[in-house]
Amino acid sequence: MKADFWHERWEKGEIGFHQGDFNRHMQDFVGRLGIQPGAHVLVPLCGKSLDMLWLAKQGYRVTGIELSQLAAEDFFVENGLEYAVDEQPGVMIYRGDQIEILCMDFFAVERSALSRIEAIYDRASLIALPPDMRPAYSAHLTHLADSGVRSLLVTLEYPQDQMRGPPFSVEPAEVKALFEANWQIEQLHSEDCLENEPRFRKKGLTRLHERVFILQKGMVV
């Protein structure tokens, strides 16, 4: 899955993964991140997620990472936020008051390019990636985070043969396999959400579970 895939999705408006409201799991479990207002939250593969707006309203500083400049522009314009654009080698940075979006390949982000990360929020990052890219994603996220950092992770689980991703199905066993070497993992919530997701029923899904995890980084690698 190359960058052109995502650029094309944004250009065509094929962004069914975008939620038109704040994620309720984020609202319910953000306290488990153990951070105070002013803390820096990283949102990988952020798109134009309204969750960044909610996090900023709670007083957090937010950095999103997103390939599409169109997504970044839409986020600020659609939410009526003032912003400036800073073009640097390999990255376009869209900066608002408490929110910035780095338009670049997530896998190319270096620790030195970010202020110290104090928490991570992943609702649509891991599940946006096919299986062969997930190990590299977890490894790079581990590289970017200091020891003690917590990540709030939301996943979907469904029979993968019933629907092409993204979003892809990620089972708890895979979360464990991807992160257990460097992160403590706790499942906070699980629910059958197919009844409330008509677009997934139309695609032929017979089962859909949403799960919420809290991960805490161990030693720096």
Task: Detail the topology: elements first, then pairings.
Blueprint: H1 3-12, H2 24-29, E1 40-43, H3 51-57, E2 61-66, H4 69-78, E3 84-88, E4 91-95, E5 99-103, E6 119-122, H5 134-144, E7 150-157, H6 172-179, E8 183-192, H7 198-202, E9 209-217
Parallel strand pairs: 1-2, 1-6, 2-5, 6-7
Antiparallel strand pairs: 3-4, 4-5, 7-9, 8-9
* Number of structural domains: 1
- The dominant shape is globular
Biggest sheet features: 9 strands, mixed
Low-pLDDT windows of residues: none
CATH architecture: 3-Layer(aba) Sandwich
Structural class: alpha/beta
What percentage of amino acids are in beta strands? 25-35%
Q: If helices are DSSP runs of H or I spanning 4 or more residues, what is the number of helices? A: 7
The total count of strands amounts to 9
Radius of gyration: 17 Å
- CATH first level: which class? Alpha Beta
Instruction: Indicate the mean pLDDT.
Output: 91
Please identify which CATH superfamily we are dealing with: Vaccinia Virus protein VP39
CATH topology: Rossmann fold
Q: How would you write the strand order of the largest sheet?
A: 3-4-5-2-1-6-7-9-8
